[in-house]
Amino acid sequence: MDARSLWKRYQDWLYYHEGLGLYLDISRMRFDDAFVESMKPKFAQAFEDMKALENGAVANPDEGRMVGHYWLRNPDIAPTPELKQEILENLSHIEEFAQKVHNGTVHPPSASKFTDILSIGIGGSALGPQFVSTALAPESAPLEIHFIDNTDPAGIDALLNHIKDHLATTLVLVISKSGTTPDTRNGMIEVQKAFESMNLKFADHAVAITGHDSALEKQAQKENWIDIFPMHDWVGGRTSELSGVGLVPAALQGIDIRGMLAGAKEMDDATRQPDLKGNPAALLALSWYFAGNGRGEKDMVVLPYKDSLLLFSRYLQQLVMESLGKEKDLAGNTVYQGIAVYGNKGSTDQHAYVQQLREGVPNFFLTFIEVLEDRQGHSPDVEPGITTGDYLLGFLYGTREAVYDNQRDSISVTIPQVNPRIVGALIALYDRAVGLYASLINVNAYHQPGVEAGKKAASEILNLQTRIMEVIAAEGKPLSLEELAEKADAGDRIEMIYKILRHLHANGRQVTLSGNLAQPASLSVSAR
Ligand SMILES: O=P(O)(O)OC[C@H]1O[C@](O)(CO)[C@@H](O)[C@@H]1O
To answer: Where is the active site (predicted)?
Structure first.
């Protein structure tokens, strides 16, 4: 297409949200009118599905749950007055709590104010708060936030070491919808022990954000933690940033949570429109469908050209991949759906993998995110009449052009600045795009059955560890791996037994491995 036709196509397909000052440009996705026509019936259905979902249909049929994250930003559309009331009360609860922490009404036993937050959670109970903190936490936030989002002992040590001088004034948020996620529970137990080792009472520092009646809620009640915020049954982990999960940490950091909710509501209003061209989420879903033939054949590379949006791609990775990556569709057919998402930020990534994007395997499409405001305040020239921000713009559009010229498609989202309203709007834009796309490909976007298999297998490995340790202790003499497997009644798990022993041995735990490490079958194991 020549430059003039592209300019026309740009204008034909440009979406602009006046209130938010947000632009969406899908002109560099090479679909034609026939494709758009062919998608219209699917979109008509997707808009209907979304309407039903917002009205309280059981849109997550496997788990028998409603899907209500849209109600959080507009309680007036909650399906019952009780739910509306609950949402409003929770919001006031969050704001009052943050205010009490800020003014010292809620304070640690040994100091007048909390200074730090330690947030323990994983997946949807971490990614949103991490993204929002990086994007929006003010320079001198009333509390500085830190995260434990893994069951990595060295990672926990590094974090605890970093905040040890502030532990006495640290407020701990334990965030888990299920209240049973082992990674989160492990982090919590290690943090509890760190408090005890400094003669600090953990309960006086702890807040739970969790589902009703969960093990975590019960523990918090029994131990009389500072406070408990609910996670609703009808809000999924990956769409929970605008529930207590994201709002409690954000409010504590002094981030304008009403602004985030307002931006999300404005975007929800725009993406509710049953009009393909006038609905930015539908335009995204259309583009994703086109890129990957509705089968996720191309990966989504997300490149925000702004450091503060670095974690947006990681946030979207869970939102998109956990929602769309499904083996079965809603009719039970095997479909192996999904869209792979990766990316960090521009222009940084141009010096990492953009070489391959420009010239290598054409198995992706790009999403550029441009922020119009360079910085607050004046930018000095780095060359006559040219600033660092001009360079960033040049690199973004240079890359867009270079990849397009080589048959690689891209979407561009342009926002005026990174502020709470816009961040809320971006979250809402992608929530809806994922919901619509899921409807186009007929999958349940709101469950995650695949994650359970890994969790179950992990728990079997831990049981196996307990079993073999019992055998080793009872035996009192060296055993070959074969003998151990047989005695533990796990003849088919010999490789796993070897790996458990290797790990225990490397950490100086209860076992000693003798023999040739290069030949696992030659090893024998005894109690240390
Ligand atoms: O909030 P929870 O229940 O601890 O779950 C954390 C994450 O784990 C998952 O269930 C996947 O294992 C995600 O869907 C969720 O966001």
So the answer is: 322, 351, 455
CATH class of the domain comprising 3-59+265-445? alpha beta
Nearest Cα to Cα of residue 73 among 296, 259, 330: 259
Q: Whose CA is nearest to atom 9 of ligand 1?
A: 123
For ligand 1, mutation pick of 62, 63, 181, 314 (most atoms within 8 Å of CB): 181
Pocket of ligand 1 (CB under 6 A): 122-125, 176-178, 181, 184, 237-238, 322, 448, 451
pLDDT band at residue 326 under the 50/70/90 scheme: very high
User: Cα of 211 to ligand 1 centre, how many Å?
Assistant: 12
Which tens digits make up the pLDDT trace of 70-79?
A: 999 999 999 9
Query: Residue 1 has what pLDDT?
Result: 85
Contacting residues for 487 by C-beta, under 8 A, at least 6 apart: 471, 475, 479
Which atom of ligand 1 is the closest one to the Cα of 238?
Answer: 16
Q: Average of pLDDT values for 165-185?
A: 97
Atom of ligand 1 nearest to the CA of 245: 1
Q: Return residue ranges of the chain for CATH 1.10.10.10.
A: 450-527
Q: Where are the beta strands (DSSP E) in 212-334?
A: 227-231, 299-304
- Rounded-to-integer distance, Cα 340 and Cα 300, Å: 6
| Contact present, 83 and 76 (Cβ < 8 Å) | no
Query: Per residue in 280-297, pLDDT tens?
Result: 999 999 999 999 999 999
Domain 69-255, CATH 3.30.420.380 — does that match? no
455 is catalytic: yes
Ligand 1 mean position, distance from CA 471 (Å): 34
CATH numeric code, 450-527: 1.10.10.10
